[in-house]
C-alpha cells in the first residue's frame, strides 16, 4: 500500500462506532437506536432497523412489546397514529 492509500484509509475515513444498549425501555429504543434486536427468553426473536420493527414487526412477541407501551404507535415527529 502506498503512502497516499494508507493515509486515505487511516485518516480520511470516518471512524465506525457501535454501541450495545440493553434495555426494556422501548420509548428510548425508538428514539435512539438505528438497529434493534428483540430477544425472548435469551433467544433472538426478530431484528432489523428501528423503523422496520416499530412500523412492521413480523413476530407476535415484538408486536405485543410495542403495543404494551402507550404512544409507540405514533409516527415520530408527526403526532399522528400509524
Automatic annotation (TrEMBL):
SUPFAM superfamilies: P-loop containing nucleoside triphosphate hydrolases. GO terms for cellular component: membrane. Keywords: Cell membrane, Membrane, Transport. Its main location: membrane. It comes from the Bacteria. Signal peptide: none annotated. Coiled coil: none annotated. It is found in: Membrane. InterPro entries: ABC_Ni/Peptide_Import (IPR050388), P-loop_NTPase (IPR027417). The keyword rRNA-binding does not apply. Belongs to the ABC transporter superfamily. This is ABC transporter ATP-binding protein. It comes from Corynebacterium diphtheriae.
Amino acid at each position: 500500500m502506498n503512502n497516499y492509500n494508507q493515509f486515505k484509509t487511516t485518516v480520511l475515513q470516518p471512524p465506525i462506532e457501535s454501541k450495545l444498549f440493553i434495555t426494556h425501555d422501548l420509548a428510548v429504543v425508538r428514539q435512539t437506536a438505528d438497529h434493534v434486536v428483540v430477544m425472548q427468553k435469551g433467544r433472538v426473536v426478530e431484528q432489523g432497523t428501528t423503523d422496520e420493527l416499530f412500523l412492521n414487526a413480523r413476530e407476535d412477541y415484538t408486536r405485543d412489546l410495542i403495543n404494551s407501551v402507550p404512544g409507540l404507535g405514533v409516527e415520530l415527529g408527526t403526532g399522528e397514529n400509524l
